[in-house]
Design a protein that fits this description.
By secondary structure, the protein is mainly alpha-helical. The chain contains seven helices and no strands. The chain has helices at 2-40, 47-68, 77-81, 85-119, 132-135, 137-162, 165-175. Helix 1 (2-40) runs antiparallel to helix 2 (47-68), helix 1 (2-40) runs antiparallel to helix 6 (137-162) and helix 2 packs parallel to helix 6 (137-162).
Length: 177
């Protein structure tokens, strides 16, 4: 279980780094468009389209990293009331719900991606981008997030087994989460 948790954490970090790199590339593409329009009164034609594709990829790639880093919006009402084991059990329940939701989302987005692969659909813009390429990031990102939910479940189970539940209470308060 610990090996799986470490693998998922590393995969989430790698996806987060890839998301950050895509943000840099997207910014550079927009800056290049601005430069070309200003200096030469021309356009690159692909800037808006590819920036949109990169935004989608950034969003889906960053999901698991954000979960690992406890960055998603949380409803903390039960979390503030529950103490010790009960708090960890609330977390496990929430992670299970999230895992089921993300598994369904992974299946749905994979079907969407596979349809693009089978129909060989292309964008209607000048670039005629093969749509399966940008659509790949949807099922991949949600799959990595599903795995990260399972890693969080396993991490919570390991915490319950270790008996160090009170230490988490102190850490949780220190982090402001």
């Amino acid at each position: 279980m610990e090996l799986f948790v470490r693998f998922c954490d590393r995969l989430a970090v790698a996806c987060g780094v890839a998301s950050g790199l895509l943000m840099i590339v997207s910014t550079l593409l927009v800056l290049a468009e601005i430069f070309v329009r200003t200096a030469f009164s021309k356009t690159l034609y692909i800037t808006e389209e590819y920036s949109g594709y990169m935004m989608e990829a950034m969003t889906f790639l960053a999901l698991a990293y954000t979960l690992k880093d406890k960055g998603h919006i949380r409803m903390t009402f039960l979390h503030t009331i529950a103490k010790g084991r009960a708090k960890v059990m609330v977390d496990i329940f929430a992670f299970c719900v999230g895992a089921v939701f993300c598994a369904v989302l992974t299946y749905t987005t994979a079907d969407f991606f596979w349809d693009a692969v089978m129909t060989k659909s292309r964008s209607m813009s000048i670039s005629q981008t093969y749509m399966a390429i940008p659509q790949f990031f949807m099922p991949f990102g949600t799959l990595v997030m599903t795995l990260q939910f399972f890693a969080e479940i396993f991490r919570s189970v390991l915490l319950l087994r270790s008996g160090k539940v009170d230490d988490v209470e102190a850490e949780s308060n220190l982090l402001g989460r």
